[in-house]
Amino acid sequence: MSVEDTDWDGVRLHIVTGKGGTGKTTVAAALALALASGGKKVLLVEVEGRQGVAQLFDVPPLPYEERKVAVAHGGGEVFALAIDTEEALIEYLEMFYNLRRAGKALTKLGVIDFVTTIAPGLRDVILTGKVTESVRRKEGRKFKYDAVVMDAPPTGRITQFLNISDEVSNLAKVGPVRNHGDLVMSVIRSPQTRVHFVTLLEEMPVQETLDGIHDLGASGIGIGGVVVNMERPAILSAEALDSAGEGALDLEEVTRGLKASGLEQHAADLAAALAAEAGEHSQRTGLEQREKARITHRPRYDLPFLPDGMDLAGLYELAQALRDQGAA
Hints:
GO molecular function: ATP binding; ATP hydrolysis activity
Distance between the termini: 8 Å
Protein name: Arsenite efflux ATP-binding protein ArsA
Strand order of the largest sheet: 3-4-2-7-1-8-9-10
CATH architecture of the largest domain: 3-Layer(aba) Sandwich
Helix content: 40-55%
Shape: elongated
Oligomer: single chain
InterPro entries: ArsA/GET3_ATPase-like, ATPase_ArsA/GET3, P-loop_NTPase
CATH class of the largest domain: Alpha Beta
Number of helices: 14
CATH superfamily of the largest domain: P-loop containing nucleotide triphosphate hydrolases
Radius of gyration: 24 Å
Strand content: 15-25%
Number of strands: 10
Number of domains: 2
Keywords: ATP-binding, Nucleotide-binding
């Protein structure tokens, strides 16, 4: 697929959020791989301090510096950064106040934790500021990274996390903090930034996704796509699913099929167990179809459930699926 065919041509900051347990870190990593395809250079940033990115790419825990973690399809490169709030604050103090030594002393005294506790908005300013600096950074006349992907906080906190203008107003009306906050928001609210939501086909994650899209849209921050993660395919025909859901499967036919396959012993009991399992599968499939119908936002990307679990090969498989659907 050519660059012109992708859904996010011109977008350089991809923010990935989702309810806990939906696989947002996995999707963020797969998106970074997809965006790096064709020789591009992409930075994947983690802001929650869980080292989930390092685990996915099977590398040692990431220090507070950008490290190459993968080569993408077509020779592109994925770099990763796990932001350490204390180090980022020291960097912030040095950049705006020339106070690196003071920052290190504050760390030893525990004052940084105290400050970010009484003014939690400052932590968000620091984290988003580091990410947007990576988006703006240039080497010569070109941007250092073709795209930056942020593995962001969960959906329930994403609007507050990104809409730092209110937090900055509470911290400072004028001066470097305010100027920095305004610069950060100019990037976050620009056409080059989009927020993507990750969900499972379950009631609570879908509802949280819909609420998050509504809240974020009201804040003026650009909404990207919805990624339906771990979708399970129906293993029965539509007619068989209906029959299974109604408890109307022909048990005699199932029993005959089992016997024909060489499973004559206890074939009737096994057929009953299979019919019960088919009924549960029918109910599950029906629930997923109803929840999927609620996601009317476009674009939407469907990623398969990987029965063998998530490993590096699976990550590349998901990246390919995102490319095939136009995400990169």
